[in-house]
Amino acid sequence: MQKRVRKYHLKDPKQIEDEREYWQSKSPEERLAAAESLRKQYMKLKGIDADQRLQRVHKIIERKKS
User: How crowded is the C-beta side of 8, counted as CA atoms within 13 Å?
Assistant: First the structure.
């Protein structure tokens, strides 16, 4: 695996293109794993159990008869 580091100015449009190209080169499984890793880091930062999932909420409503 070849490691590569690039520096960009904050508003350099080339950075967006390079990032898009990088993530498109990854498989869906790798992208999902990266998103899950970020989610766990965020949850840990906020002090929430990282294995906790989103709750499902169901609300039953009656439809009006037409």
Answer: 11
In sequence order, what are the residues at sequence separation of 6 or more whose Cβ sits closer than 8 angstroms to the Cβ of residue 43? 49, 50, 52
**How does pLDDT run across 6-59, given as a tens digit for each residue?**
888 888 999 999 999 999 999 999 999 999 999 889 888 988 876 766 677 788
Model pTM? 0.59
Rg (CA), the chain: 20
Nearby residues of 49 by Cβ (< 8 Å), 6 or more positions away: 43
Domain segments of the chain as ranges? 13-45
